[in-house]
Amino acid sequence: MNKNEKTLELDKILQMLANETSTTDAAELALAVEPTHDINSVKDKLEETDAAYILSAKFGSPSFYGMVNVSNALRRAEAGGSLNMGELLRVASTMRALRSLSQWRQKSEGTKTKIDGYFQVIYTNKQTEDRIFTAILSEEEMSDNASVTLASIRRKIKNMSVSVRDKLDKLIRSQTHQKHLQDAIVTMRSGRFVVPVKAEYRAEVPGLVHDSSSSGATVFVEPMAVVEANNEIRVLQAKEQEEMDRILQELSTAVGADASEVIRSYEHALTLDLIFAKANLAYKMKAVMPKINNDGKVLIHEARHPLIDPHQVVPTNISLGNSFDTLIITGPNTGGKTVALKTIGLLTLMTMCGLMIPAGDHSEIAIFDNILVDIGDEQSIEQSLSTFSSHMTNIIKILAQANEKSLVLMDELGAGTDPIEGAALATSIIEELRRKSVRLACTTHYAELKAYALQTEGVENGCCEFDVATLRPTYRLLIGVPGKSNAFAISRRLGMPQIIVERASELVSDESHSFEKVIGQLEKSRKKLEKELFESRQQKREIQQKLEETNKFHTEAEQKAQKEIDKARQDAEQIVAMTRAKAEGLIHEMEELRRQKNKEISADQKARMRAGIKELDSVANPVRERKSDGDYVLPRKLKAGDNVLIFDIDKKAVVLEEPKGEVVLVQAGIIKTRVNLKNLRLLQNQANKPQKNVPKHRTVTKAVSEKATTELDLRGMNVEESLMEVDNILDHAALMGIALITIIHGKGTGVLRNAVQQHLKTCSIVKSFRLGTYGEGESGVTIVELK
Questions:
Q1: In CATH, what number is assigned to the domain containing residue 767?
Q2: Helix, strand, coil fractions of the chain, as percent rounded to 5
């Protein structure tokens, strides 16, 4: 990383990026990120970061857990070498992490992004991965399930060991040898089962001596009775090791065949780890993807320096290279001038690294060939350089490198020497850099440079706002306004004697005094205009809010009206259904009478027929002309807010305005309409009379020869067809006087069952319903009880 990038603290941003990665190799990649000077490459990197940002927001960040660099082990396996159990476990862990990464993308594959190519080339081999995890339990232990042969050998070793221990247990428990043994235990020496024998009784226990204690008082003897068995165990253990070596070689060959694909997939996974780390860092910084250009234009809204505490940083607007190519920032010390310079440079470098920037939407960053910086005091005792000499050394290097594709940032230009000479030198340096067509931002205290900016086209003043009342900077960068040093005001606030401040003011030249006065007036005008702008924006927001509320109210009114229309349509459909049911009932009655034509029609049958026809007429015409209740006269003149009854439709309403002639405007529900005064009845302190509900279904008593139906099979029908059939059987059951019916809808996905049961809740003739019990069809049927 070059000196300029370190001065702007890019290294600290890259360390923050490295902290967001999940693997050591990806962290190293993050620390090695360099700014890209090609606009197309920058655009690609930003789009990749944005794609990861969107995917993380929708589906959460993918996991890279368990992924390690196993390239060396894979290359050795590819060359025919055998890997140990620890290496194979790390390879399998990496393969599992790669497979997990691929599966994560498959769950979100409906969203096409810029980084899909990295996911698509990731190689997975679940078979090899599972073989390794099945065969190897840890870095020191292989599973019995690794092979049938290994399981058989270990079983024989176990059985043989049990046999040897049994023989030795008998020996140590025998009365003959108890006094010969140091301890009544069985132990192992050199992989063979032995017993501890007192040295003086060595000859009493025939066998092979394998070891002795440090004191020499105990010898460890392998009794002759178990020597052959121990030999067999050692042979089996050798076979076990051979089988384990064979299994390791077989697994190593399997992973060696996939070495190149796994290594390449690991490299792509590292790239993805870095890209998602950029996205995570952007999320923490509340960053956005800026627009980029090659025209040297920098326009940053609500810029925030990423290394300042988010709770303390003050967003600021920065522009350069649009209507002016040089920005001269002035103002008091500790006012935020240097922070503004570093913010411009650091956000530009972050963009060129493919990182989102902590700024507002629609921010724009230019891509430069180089960013040249002179910020900070780099005086050197060894090289005998003063502060001024150090600055001049850097500026000379900047002048040699700068061109039309350069961004130059200089702090305290011309400081450290005589003010008159320093101001002249600073002006000359600015003119030379402008001749090279650079984009320049610098800070200074010189009034001469403020005047130069006011008089020169393409050069703009800027200042960092400072509150004299509190002696605190606000860190807001104001473009187009020269800054005041505020030296006298600050000194006065800090307690400097008034006589000294006044004398200092007298010593300032009239020209400088007038200039500062003009700047002060400009500052007052700026604050006044800023206040008016704030108020106008506030009014605009209020108007916009009221407009949104009006639109919302209009939308809600339309929705309510549509609901009323839908409800009316449903009521009409129910009326049609009831009318049809009544008509069918009368038809059945007439059919029955026709079949009984040889018999005399009874008076009861005639009365029932007349009642049915009358009821059919009533059901089919729910809204009709009501008979007048006499010569009703309104007791007084109606006024707005009166509760009235619309007589002909038996609907309550509220008067909205005083009558005009013979009509008046009223509102019934959400409907506004004009009604004739003769059709209104004034409701004075009366409780709303409950309207008589017209029953949706009514049982018509009749004698029919038709066979009663108590079961309905809906399987194979769609929801609409099913609900029509349900209505038919409910009507039929009501007419037939059936109290219980069974609806068969099947178990399936439950969609048809839910639709039927929701529909039953709206039917007035349904008393209750339940799912079937064991023997009735369980959840595949619904048992309905009618009123």
A1: 3.30.1370.110
A2: 50, 15, 30
User: And the tokens for 326?
Assistant: 């040089």
Q: Which domain holds residue 668?
A: 623-693
Contacts of range 527-535, beta carbons closer than 8 Å, 24 or more positions apart: none
Whether 107 is covered by a domain: the verdict is yes
The number of C-alpha atoms within 13 Å of 205 and in the hemisphere containing its C-beta is 29
In sign, the C-alpha dihedral spanning 93, 96, 97, 98 is positive
- Residue 385 shares a structural domain with residue 469: yes
Sign of CA dihedral 492, 494, 496, 498: positive
Final residue of a structural domain among 457, 485, 513: 485
pLDDT tens by residue, 272-306: 999 999 999 999 999 999 999 999 999 999 899 99
Span 673-685, pLDDT tens digits: 888 888 888 886 5
Q: Which strand (E) or helix (H) includes residue 628? A: none
Same domain, 686 and 741: no
Query: Could you tell me if 202 and 323 lie in one domain?
Result: no
Spatial strand order in the sheet of 766-771: 711-713, 740-744, 781-786, 766-771
> Residue 28 and residue 13: Cα distance in Å, rounded?
14
Contacting residues for 620 by C-beta, under 8 A, at least 6 apart? 575, 579
Joined together, the tokens standing for residue 514 give: 């007038």
Query: What's the CATH number where 464 sits?
Result: 3.40.50.300
CA separation, residue 745 to residues 547, 731, 755, 758, 766 (Å): 50, 19, 10, 13, 18
For residue 468, the model assigns a pLDDT of 60
Domain count, the chain: 5
Q: Are residues 296 and 275 in the same domain?
A: no
What's the predicted TM-score (pTM) here? 0.61
Same domain? 717 vs 741: yes
